[in-house]
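Weekly structure sync, notes
Attendees: PL (lead), two postdocs, one rotation student
Agenda item 3: pending single-chain targets
PL asked that the sequence for the first pending target be pasted directly into the notes so everyone works from the same version. It is reproduced below exactly as submitted, 160 residues in total.
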Amino acid sequence: MTDGTNKKLGIGTTTPVAPLHVNGGDLLAAGFYQSAVFYKSDLADGEKLDVTVGKSDAMNEAFIFRYHYNPAASSQLAIHHFGDSNSFVIAKGGNVGLGTLSPGTRLDIADGAVTMQEMLAPPAPAGDKCVIYAEDNGSGKTRLMVKFATGAAQQIAIEP
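Predicted structure, written out during the meeting:
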């Protein structure tokens, strides 16, 4: 259905409420990569644009991609499970937050918990970087290690 007066196109509906309103079916972007591009040219400061991805009869299992336009502070992209709030946030400038709306560092984890699995010692990182990892100390205890670009490794902590 085309509404020329209000400049709206309805697919599967006779009463479109948006410039493009698709009702009752899947929206397919055909080609080698399936993708969709969403723009809103009149997005105001503080306004959000959501894209929900999921199965129509199981929305409680859907994920929401939210773009929050805030040029004065920090525009961001948030990805969260339906019903949760901001499980994963990428802020302007590259800070990443897990469980926090406003990451203050490169990786900001709400509640501060990180789980590591024991692994073989990784190779030395390049340049001025270091790698933090968990390994078995050879006596059945897990220890937390840091490896520097020089290849030197230092124990940070060991399981009591």
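Discussion points:
- The CA atoms of residues 48 and 68 lie 4 Å apart.
- The radius of gyration is 23 Å.
Action: rotation student to compare against the earlier draft before next sync.
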